[in-house]
Amino acid sequence: MLSVNLICIGKIKEKYLIDGISEFTKRLKTDIIFNTIELKEIGDDKNRENSIDKESNDIYEVISKYKRAYNILLDIEGQKYNSELFSKKIEIIMLDGYSTINFIIGGSYGVNNFIKKEVDLKLSFSDFTFPHQLMRLLFIEQLYRWVSIMNNGKYHK
């Protein structure tokens, strides 16, 4: 069974986001193993570079624990896919022998170049900028959609 980790900086505070994320997490339980790994947000406006480096180091610590995982950074500069094509991308990743996929959402200042070079793919959802907490809800909805497409489910139709 596919294992998906969402590695992200900070915690969700708004109830409506928590409720939406919980709903899609429940729906996913029959098809994949899904985990959210929340890391501490530094977010120091006065020392932005140190914040980025510290948060990126924390992300690297997590992804380095998964020796055989495919790492995907959600990044505005990444590749764009539609839902059907990314669902196929996940199938290809699985056929390549990966049973774990780590999706990474950096902090509000992003991640450093080291993380950008370490990941296997940079994925962009849009040219728009979204709040990181909202992006987590958008991500989990898309994850559910991708899984639904792979399983010929009704949700995507």
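Second entry:
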Amino acid sequence: MVSPQMSWHKGGCHCGAVTFEVLTPPEVEVDDCNCSICSKTGFLHLIVPKDRFRLLTGEDRLTDYQFNTKTAHHLFCSVCGVKSFYVPRSHPDGVSVNFRCLDSTGFTKVKVSNFDGKNWEANVHKLTPLEAR
């Protein structure tokens, strides 16, 4: 159920070819992961159920990169190279939005939590399940 306090926030890649909206409450917690890909790209995870994410433009501009278990779909803009969102291994029924790619207007509180993704298998259980987001 969607809370009446939730609102849609626009986001996208650097060049604007890929744009989207994500439905969130005004207070969010994002995960700062130290795994090999997140630490290199500066990704701050805001994971939401798929029904709270809408791709507006650029589906034809997305490039899918997979590695290791080939479960996650790392989606990059083929024009500017920015990964503004992807389908995470931890929540394959959700979408992880890079909070840094969102218009932050309207958020009243953003808590950043460190996540030890270098030791993913030992820590994945610490991530909030989709149904609690």
